[in-house]
Design goal:
Layout (H helix, E strand, L loop, with lengths): L1 H12 L17 E6 L4 E3 L2 E5 L4 E6 L5 E6 L6 E4 L5 E6 L2 E15 L3 E11 L5 E11 L1
Length: 140
């Protein structure tokens, strides 16, 4: 009977290993998203930073139906005002939005990736504001 009690205690103290690695959903991925007029979020099919021309380019849809372009004069982590050397534009089905105010924030940049945010107001293509977030987009 003592053997049965010892075996019962041993078996009840065993459990499945709950220490399996937990997936970290906070790891940034290569992404560029934007909203027009505070509406639904659009996720770019492709986005990158062209270091030769200091330009961020993001595309969505067949034949780049939607295209966001951000032109910079500098690309170090900092906050830059839209205007004089810093432009945000958006092409949607042949119509163009041009930002007239706002800011471009580069929060991180390395030789391989760039992250940040864009807030802008302007006009064209039925858009009065375009806000974006980019995380670890490729630097080319």
């Amino acid at each position: 009977m003592a053997v049965v009690a010892v075996m019962a205690l041993t078996l009840t103290s065993c459990s499945e290993d709950d220490s399996a690695p937990v997936e970290n959903n906070n790891i940034p991925t290569n992404s560029f998203t934007w909203t027009e007029n505070g509406g639904a979020q659009t996720v770019a099919d492709s986005a990158f930073y062209d270091s030769q021309y200091k330009t961020i380019k993001a595309f969505k849809g067949a034949n780049m139906a939607k295209f966001v372009e951000v032109n910079l004069s500098a690309d170090a982590p900092a906050t830059y005002p839209v205007g004089s050397g810093y432009a945000v534009s958006y092409l949607n089905a042949g119509s163009i939005y041009a930002a007239s105010a706002g800011s471009i924030v580069i929060s991180a940049k390395s030789t391989t990736a760039m992250s940040g945010t864009i807030t802008s107001t302007g006009s064209g293509a039925g858009v009065t504001s375009l806000n974006a977030q980019f995380t670890n987009i490729e630097v080319r």
